[in-house]
Predict the structure.
Amino acid sequence: MVLKKKKKEIQVDAFLLDQQQLEKLQRFSKAEEQNLASLLLHCAQLSSGIQQIQCIKQIIPLLKKMDQDSACDPMVKACLDILGETYFSLGVKNPLKKVLASSLNSLPEEFITLAVQSFMCCLREELKTTDTYLYRKVLDNLVSCLEDFSLGRATIKNLLEEVLQFLQKSILDIQEENRQNHGNHVVQTQLMHDLLIAIKVSMMLVQKLQENIQGSLWKHHESFIWQSMCNLLKSSTNFLVDATLLQTVQTTSGLAVILFTKAMYEPVEELPSLISDLLLGSIKHAGVPVWFVSNCGALCTEHLPDSVRLFLCHGALAMLEWKNGSMGENGEKLLLDIASVLLSLSSELKESSMAASLSRTLAIWTNSALAALVSGSPNLKTKLNGNSDVAGKLLEYIYTHWEHPVDAVRHQTKLIFRNLLQIHRNTITGSNEKSDPFFAGLMKRLLSLEWHVKGKYTSLGCLVECVGTENILQLDRTIPVQVLDVMNDQSLAPYASDLLETMFTNHKAHFALCFQESTWIDQWHEIWVSPLLQILCEGNQDQTTYIIDYYLPKLLRCSPDSLSYMITILQASADANLGSCTTRGALGALMACLRTARAHGHLELSSIMGTGLVSTECIKQGLVHQHHQVCIDALGLLCETHRSTEIVSAEEMQLIQFFMMYNLSSQSPSVRQQIVCLLRKLFCRIQESSLVLYKLEQNKTKQDLLENSTQRHPLGILQQYKDFMSSVCDRLFEVLFPGSSHPTRFSALTILGSVAEIFSAPQGQAQVFQLDQEIDSTRVRTLIQCLASTFEEVKVLAFGLLMKLRAVAFNLKDSEYLDLFQAAMDLSTSTKPYDCVTASYLLNFLIHHEGLQHICSGKWVEHNTQIDGNASVSTVEKNTLAVIKLLLVNVEEEILQAKKSLLQAAASFPMYGRVHCITGALQKLPFNNLTLVSEWKEMVARLILMSYKLSAVVSPVVQSSSPEGLIPMDSDSETACRLQMILNEIQPQDTNDYFIQPKILKEHSEVESEKLADCRPMESTCTEITGKERQTCDVTAQMVLVCCWRSMKEVSLLLGTLCKLLPSQAAPEPSEGLITVEQVKNIGDYFKHHLLQSRHRGAFELAYAGFVQLTEMLSRCNSESLCKMPEQWLSCVLEEIKSCDPSSTLCATRRSAGIPFYIQALLASEPKSKTDLLKRTMKELITLAAPLNESSSVIPQVHALNILRALFRDTRLGENIMPYVADGIQAAILGFMSPVWAVRNSSTLLFSALITRIFGVKRGKDENSKKNRMTGREFFSRFPSLYPFLLKQLEVVTGTLNSEAEELKIHPSLFLLLLILGRLYPSPMDGACSALSMAPFVPFIIRCGCSPVYRSREMSGRALVPFVMVNEVPQTVLSLLKGLPDSTSPCIRQNNIHGTLLQVFHLLQSYLESKQLCSSDFQQGLGDIIACVGTKLWLAKRPNPCLVTRAAYLDVLVLLSTHLGKFQKQVSGF
């Protein structure tokens, strides 16, 4: 079913006139007849913006009725003045402004001069604005005047000098204001956007009024306009080279520099040469005008920054005219120079935003090249031909970036490839495109790629458009089957389906053009439909699911008539092939095809059921099929329709009820979600079709009876709907009995929630069904019982449903509410963690009960009668305040008890439950609409104070060096003294007083001893204490720890929630919000302390969750002092890490505990547009992570490695972290050689995180799967600095592998190097023209095969493959085989033999599977290899005593023999 979005109502703010304007209009208006003044007066008095639009549209017709002498009428002058003032006062996005401009464009000619004078007067006032923060409004008005508004353009033309003066002043003022607000990201971002608009306005001014400006430019160099243009050019140049500005500002400045230079430069023919010289750094001052050097001096250097060159290229491509060959040979040279510069920058600009900008610019270049080729010279066509250097380098860029992690880069790469094909087509006009060598070579290379390469799909799709599907199928007829086989991987399925759609659409068009209908449709079905049906019947679940989702709809859209072919084929075998729990069978395939066809409007269910093509029994079989997805498809067939108002038939309702009898308890979460989603679509259909039926009933005409159901009366259908929905709800409540399974409860509650949401209508509107009417007290109790479920998602669903049924959910007896409240209060102190969650949901439910305050009053000592008397206070607010006060009083008492005995608190009243309930109540409260502000301020202050007190009680445990086995008491003073000595030895840096002077609790915890005692760090330790009712209970270390870390968690989440209460316009005054800036700062210091001190992972991970809420709030805050806090905190912690201070309490063990989380939160909250903190931090961390001298402390290095690991794993940092990956790899590999275990351990963890970041998350069990690999070309182009580093390290490693030495020498980083190199794989696209040759690695990797470690030898075999080009494999294999010893050799080293054989095996495997077409070189190379293998046969026989090398040799023989069959026709003599 296609659900159409409801049209969003347009909001139009009405304009208002001041008293003086109204009086002026009243003076001129006439009561007896409508004139312009009375029309405007009426318009101003309207409160609706929509109505005002209708009034404004009447202005021009009224003016056209007036005679020509009316232009002198003072009334017209006054009205035009008011219209001008109104126009400039309206916001830029207000539709009234556009309507007014559109109307005034049709102003009669006699009024234009008068109107221009009025607008000039208004604009002149606007240009007098001096407040920097009001410049944006003036700039927006200038943009509006220049855009499709003739009156506005005329006004600006008359005030050109004043406008230019304002633009210069505004640009300088914004620049200065930005400098003064350094560090305030919110204000700076606003100013940057204002500056961007100012630059755009200046460009629009030049573009729209260019003729007017040029008249002054070349004639009067001393004129004001010339000087203004020079100033704007100079400012734009400064912005272009200023790397601290937003990239969008720099990009736009690049456009402005080229545009202004183009407008000012004489002669224009030499402009391309000037820009070429700028880009290539070869500009000579002697031949350049003085004004250009003085204003653009920063660009006239040999070494421009890479980003500036990129922005200038973009500016030249966008602002110069490339069509019609207007720039001649200089223009063609500039075009080629820009390509050269851009392609050279591709290896330099690695930051994600710059890489995306470069790809966009390259795509623009290809469009410009296409435009230039239309009238270009033969020389240009030769240099842009597919076989030219430019095209070759562009292809290299495409192959390197078609799997780039940034979506924008991948998309632009596809456009570049498509345009490159078009460029080549334009250069070979007249020849046969399908037989062109360039296209033929591309086809072969692309088809030789593995199907896991995503770039292959998009490139083949583009190629199909040029050469046609038939030509590609001639090379390999199995392509459709191969692509369908790939579709079991969801990451590849969209690419594969797009390629198939392009191919079968093109193929169908080709057949239709060349053959008659009867002759080609069967062949087309055989190629594109038959493989699909076979896979749907027998394929695995993932593959069939993705084919149905991605491929089948596209196939049916292309050929709807193919549906009958599918149904006929599948129906014939449906009875015989019912499928199983793992395969769909023909029945499942039939259900899938029918469902897809109906959902996309290709099928009417009633028609196929009426004709008997598909029976009801067949659908029933599908609804209870043992394969879950067949059940879902059968349900989808009933629920999904193309029209959302299609009537639900009685048969469909019966089948849905049949389905719900058997499928509500599915154990699969994905199946449950699909069931809920499909039933929701059905309910929407019932709701929307019922509205149509109500309208038909109201009209009561025979002609309005529905199609295909003329026998059914609308009221009868509506009654069926009501009965059906009632039976559905009965069934759903039946399965919610106590003890029902979690899947059943989840399904029932979710479906009920959908029913409540969909069938909710305003009072007075006709509604076919209302869930409220089905609810009684028994069902309310059933829902309340669901709140006690141990699964929180069930609690969430039950609570949400109760809130939707609020009108009938509070009809229980008062005693029941009292019992519920008492139960919630008891559960809030339960020692079972999930009980407090239940308590929170119960309290949040009871908060909506009007009588809750009376229930609380018996337990709340400070009952506030003043609140009761305030009728304006909402029930929810009063109840929430009452509940929180009661919880707060209780938790404060419990904290006092916990100070005396933490053990008793852990066993009897763990405090985290109360705090959890407080946080839950606060999160449901609408803070934007509070009445009791003073009470809430007091409450917030008390909550913050309580949080600090609770944290002080429990933090010593979680900050202990070994909190897992901690019991903070002992009844034996002698043991305590001995343990105190041990404590001092194992915790020399722990300065926590809790452990220096622990308390001793005697029996029943009545007396405190003054002697020292210590914690007993034994997991089995169990202490008996007496509870509140004098009952002895056991307290284990785990109970104490759970109590403490959960308390820390709840405190952190509570403080994080409270931080959100700070208003965005923060001020130090308490009256500004519920929480003050000072309180926020204190909370920040609290988080800092505990994140940096806690040792327990649960404590600092959840403190991190609260701290993230704080940092995100700070990043959006407008307070300068708060905005700078993250930067200050970051500087402090980095200084402490670097200081190596022995007194530092930072935890160097436990992977640096909370330190990485702390830094992570600070960096992740930084605005994505400004990553200064990230850049600065990464540079410092990379420096610290580098190996230190032995005399230096290694603790900073360990911290840096652990922090880097956390940052590289954080997905929120996205591609901004990628430029530092190469440095991270170097730090990890070098750190692995450290003599200190802690450094090696942290380096290993960092290396693992980086491998995942580079190659992606491993999604399969195959270690050698190519899904998590990349080509050598792509790897070294993305991380060029790793090329020399890995080469050097490999050289060092292989230097230690001395095969003559007897002792075992293993270099620590050998494994890491081979692990990286082994993740690369060869590509047919890798050629000798690559800037980074792989050849230098080969001898070193070959030497790694001599390693005494089996795993290293194996990895060296895999790592060698991507570094040997395909055409060099035979020669390399022969060289390796010849290096194997003979049976008579005096010194035979089995490790060397084994390593060599593994390398031969992997090279041959890659070579034989590379899909290279058989050639004479291939035959000769294979023949030589087989001959050489034959000379070493002794390795497979008994003279070789090593079974491992015998097996490796046999593997080589098996590999060769397996592949010989493929080449027996080409290779003779085997």
The first helix runs from residue 19 to 28.
